[in-house]
Amino acid sequence: MERAPKPGRDVPPKKDKLQAKRKKPRRYWEEETAPTTARASPGPPRNKKRNQELRPQRPKTAHILKKSRISKKPQVPKKLRKRKNPEPQRSLSGAQDPFPGPAPVPVEVVQKFCRIDKSKKLPHSKSKTRNRLEVAEAEEKETSVKAARSELLLAEEPGFLEGEDGEDTAKILQADIVEAVDIASAAKHFDLNLRQFGPYRLNYSRTGRHLAFGGRRGHVAALDWVTKRLMCEINVMETVRDIRFLHSEALLAVAQNRWLHIYDNQGIELHCIRRCDRVTRLEFLPFHFLLATASETGFLTYLDVSVGKIVAALNARAGRLDVMTWNPYNAVIHLGHSNGTVSLWSPAMKEPLAKILCHRGGVRAVAVDSTGTYMATSGLDHQLKIFDLRGTFQPLSARTLPQGAGHLAFSQRGLLVAGMGDVVNIWAGQGQTGPPSLEQPYLTHRLSGPVHGLQFCPFEDVLGVGHSGGITSMLVPGAAEPNFDGLESNPYRSRKQRQEWEVKALLEKVPAELICLDPRALAEVDVISLEQEKKERIERLGYDPEAKTPFQPKPKQKGRSSTASLVKRKRKVMDEDHRDKVRQSLEQQQHKQKKAKPSRARPSALDRFVH
Amino acid sequence: MSANRAAESLLALSQHEELVDLPEDYPLSASEDEGDSDGERKHQKLLETISSLGGKNRRKLAERSEASLKVSEFNVSSEGSGEKLVLADLLEPVKTSSSLATVKKQLNRVKSKKTVELPLNKEEVERIHREVAFNKTSQVLSKWDPIVLKNRQAEQLVFPMEKEQPAFAPIEHVLSGWKARTPLEQEIFNLLHKNKQPVTDPLLTPVEKASLRAMSLEEAKMRRAELQRARALQSYYEARARREKKIKSKKYHRVMKKAKAKEALKEFEQLQKINPTAALEELEKIEKARMLERMSLKHQNSGKWAKSKAIMAKYDREARQAMQEQLAKNKELTQKLQVASESEEEEGGTEVEELLVPDAMHEAQMNADGPNPWMLRSCTSDAQEAEIQEDPEQLPEPLAHNVSESEGDERLVAEEEILLKEFEEKRSLRKRSELNQDAESVGSQETKDSISREVLFELRTLSQKLKENHQSRKQKASSVGTVPQVQREVPAPEEEEEALLLQRPERVQTLEELEELEKEGCLQNKELPRPVLEGHRLKKNPNNQTDSPKKKKKEQMIDLQNLLTTKSPSVKSLAVPTTIEELEGEAERDQKQMIKEAFAGDDVIRDFLKEKREAVEASKPQDVDLTLPGWGEWGGVGLRPSAKKRRRFLIKAPEGPPRKDKNLPNVIINEKRNIYAAAHQVRVLPYPFTHHRQFERTIQTPIGSTWNTQRAFQKLTTPKIVTKAGHIIKPIKAENVGYRSSSRSDLSVLQRNPKRLSAHHKKQLKKNSID
Question: What are the entry keywords (chain A) (predicted)?
Fold first, then answer.
């Protein structure tokens, strides 16, 4: 195995051209390197403005000074504030707080953390209930404000590549980028020339620190790709179809010719799972500890790796399965089929949760972005489509690619990569949250062989490409999330930390049956069984205990509550109720009629001629 | 009833009068005097009866003031019939005698000693006791209601309740027993002493100390009384205001308003004399009211009333007058008031204004003789005003031209130039108008108007210009010249986006039609425009608008065919030429794929639609057929129950909610319930909630540490009740909650045995009876 930082094949780039490229995939552990900053600064001021327009920087909460806890204005300069409040409160000691009160938080950031769905209308509630609701809302507000305030700790900002006016970023070569960035980042671009063992599949661990790859001809290796320390390298003497890390980098699942094998990071075979045979693709659901395997026989099998049980084996009834991905938002597995559909699976259901017809030809690749909002598919009809997964499953945009994409992958920040033959194209979105626009590729790269596996490295601006010539790690500025959660997936964790995390993760394991299209459904009441139970109760008791008691007129002053008047009053209320009911039903009828009318067009005499 | 009674009494009166009239004719008593007195009497009687109608002394019977004609044992006069006969009266002799006094005393004694009432029976006594006891205890217990409520609503309760008062040891007390020993400390103390910093004792000022001391009871009481009084006063005032508000008389309100206005004017005049600055402030208030009036359409004949009046105005002079009055009021309200310090204000305005205004001001001041140059400047007539008002509409055009011309240059400088030019133009215009109007009379108010308008106008143009600058900057990339194009440019991307969003078809079909249309597939394909083109067309002919609403409605139904067959724009502008050096094998494969696609397409769609239809059918609720063949009619092989019967015994299943994928032709969404997940869901509503949505709201925020900051997590998961280990949790005491201990004695009623209590009472009752 050899590794060589590969210089650009083309003519070495000119210096003045380099000046135009600005890139800052800087991490907090990296010193601000002089060459990059020097290059960054001489840009014309106009350009700078545009930068800000394109990528709205996170408002720095430290500079926002207002008394209210949530300020509407994003920024108020320091000077202004001082002028407004010349005499801040003095404490007993005489020292004065220049920024009295709690630090304000911008509304948009708070809104991001609010989870109560206020669009649904509530029925009228009693005061006691209202109290509870108010408490819940206040709690939500408080916690979201706290969360928004803690955004301050996310100090890193994503870098990005930007050309001068009219310059196409796609023309920038990897070599140029490598020259422009600091040494530490440049070291992340490398090629592994492994021509012997055929096209490679690869997988990064969840922390983004480790890389495992398997060649079709049996070559399996795992390494700490940042330090390039090899953990293990073996040849399984069998076809390797896919390779995947389990919850930590210590375990490795390899889909071999017959069965599924599990190795540890020393390369020792721990298990051979014969119930999963002829596996073509692997996916690991980290929060459920499920290893999903798609097989040639058409079965989708879920294996719980924490207890070693097969949770579900579902027959997709669509022939050979070799296109699979998982949705990080709801842990639903997406399978692509040869009849142009993509089906969505959960281990709790024998049938697919949904089926989407995406292409006229077979589906070649599927990818879902990290927020679970967009799905990219490519088919045999050479089209690349992006679907909206939020309930409508409609295509948002589509492109015809010259050769069609065989592999797709989304990055953490929503960049889409497609491998077409030996070329890799990367598209970036317009804003923070939008889908990648397929108009103009953000970057392109050509490899030494046809692409066989693609994955963006988590928390690093790096794209790993497995191809027939080995492995290529390319730099893609702005691909990854710059801030990682040290408790969740820490790239720098020690062995001890990893072990502790493992225990915690196992304790927080999500049951497999909770996987469904809407992961928030758990926070809803099971209305059907609620009503069922109510019905049963009424049957058991013989009356409805929650029913409104019929109106009973109160006895009035002496002489005025004769039987006749009591009856009269009762009748009055009854009539009122009745009238309400009639009114409602009439309204409903009108509504229905209105609905019904437009759909049913008037039959015309000429209709008989239409077939 | 009372009316009846009155009628009766009237009747009686008339009868009586008849009776009385009879003897009048009698010669015996007929004297002239008597005749007079008789008339008087009658009159009095009448008065009495009438007064008795009032009700109070209705019962008072008529008295006879004269001796009756016939005195005999058969005819008893009714004199004194209203009085009650008392025993003592009978006993009393004509002359008082001592012998009867003893009898009288005895009689009195007899009278004072009443007979003892029969004691209540046992049940009744007990009931009364129970009632009293209940009332008392419930009253005592009601004191605890707020505390119970508070404890129930509290986020957290800490037991044991009584908190140890944290010993408040001021720092000086701590310090007193401590002395500086190390050299560093000594040095610091020296420094402190040098600066006369209080080291030990007076760290707290007397004010702070006073505040530290708790408020005494009396103070608290006084304060409470004060508050109570204030509240009472407020409620009186409120009640009064409400009462006054309820008065419907328009005249009253008008009068009140006028009076108020007069008073205000008087006050204002006084204020002007006494405190000119305050008066100025008042003026500002009026100015603000003017502004509000200008903003609103309150008196501009646009209201409902005004419109109705406008219709009437043709025929009705009064209506016309009323309308005019309203307009006049508007004018009056919108008239600008004279403010002495206006010019100063203007000077203190924005820099731009400072830049622009001074010339005019200097001129004015040179012209002016009086104190206020603005007031004396020549006025512009109405016509002039109109001209100026027209100006803003005319202006934008050249302005825009300017902007577009200057785009190539450095923008900032150009903008400033344009602005300056603008104002110069304006100023010259104004000057001209001045020259024209110099000869005319001075109407201070009107000038005011015109000036204010001009200022406003300037501001408006400024803002307009700013906006336009903004726009032009946005579309910097395109080198477009004029404004109209700019405005067209803005909506264009939206349209394009929309077209991209959903490649919507021209024609709309339902699912059923789809298959039929498949046959025409190729034909349709030609019709289908590429999304961007569609967008273009949309832009080109806005005449389509009549069709568009219909279209939009139908567009919700997305054609499946179109979805798959629309040609999406192909990527050809890859930066790196990615012309693939296709291997021959690959080329072959490609061709195969092409063939496959050509044949596959239709099948894919048809299969999918079939599958979907099946899924829809399967998910429909099934009807229940309860017909029994052969029941009530002939049965056997080949015989089927009649249609009528079948219809009668068919129980139709209720139609379920509409499918989620009803309008999504390319999707099949499984409607089956995930029972395994449902097992984890809540299925019983907890107590105060009556609707599941209410409860859902309270559980929507996650409380785990994964989603929350540490602090928030801790707060969300605080236990409802905290107990201290090893401490006895005593029942709550009145003193702890703030009640005086006397309430405990009230409580003691509770503890007593009710039976004993009743027995005790009985004893007392017995004692009484014996006495």
Answer: Nucleus, Phosphoprotein, Repeat, WD repeat
Which segments of A433-557 does DSSP mark as H helices, in order?
495-507, 527-541
CB < 8 Å from B in window 462-501 of A:
488
Measured between beta carbons, the chain B residues lying within 8 angstroms of A528 are 673, 678
* Contact at CB, A116 and B693, closer than 8 angstroms: no
In tens, the pLDDT along A552-585 reads 888 777 777 788 888 988 999 999 999 999 999 9
Residue B405: Cβ within 10 Å count: 13
Whether A339 has its CB under 8 Å from any CB of chain B: the answer is yes
Residue ranges of B 480-509 with Cβ closer than 8 A to chain A: 500-503
The pair of three-digit structure tokens given for residue B243, joined into one six-digit string? 């009462």
User: Between A136, A150, A511, which is nearest B701 by CB?
Assistant: A136
Interchain pair A360, B695: CB under 8 A: no
Give helix B382-394 / helix B396-405 axis angle, nearest 10°. 40
Strands A219-224 and A407-410: unpaired
Measuring CA to CA, which residue among A21, A4, A155, A8 is closest to residue A477?
A21
pLDDT digits (tens, 9 = 90+) for A196-228: 998 999 999 999 999 999 999 999 999 999 999
User: What distances in angstroms separate CA B1 from CA A562, B4, B5, B6, B52, one per listed residue?
Assistant: 21, 5, 6, 9, 15
Residues 527-556 of B with CB under 8 A from A: 553
Taking alpha carbons only, the member of B443, B667, B474 closest to residue A388 is B667
Residues 207-236 of B with CB under 8 A from A: none
Query: Could you tell me which of A224, A225, A258, A252 has the C-alpha nearest to residue A240?
Result: A258
B291-301 per-residue burial string, b: 16 or more CB within 10 A, e: under 16 = eebeeeeebeb
Nearest in space to B13 (alpha carbons), one of B56, B37, B38, B42: B42
For A175, residues 6+ apart whose C-beta sits below 8 A from its C-beta are A7, A8, A9, A10, A12, A13
Tokens 């004893």 map to which residue? B763
**B697 and A122 in contact by Cβ < 8 A?**
yes
CA torsion angle B225 B231 B236 B240 (round to 10): 160
Check: pTM over 0.80? Answer yes or no: no
Chain A positions touching B702 (Cβ under 8 A) are 115
Cα B603 to Cα A341: distance, rounded to the nearest angstrom: 12
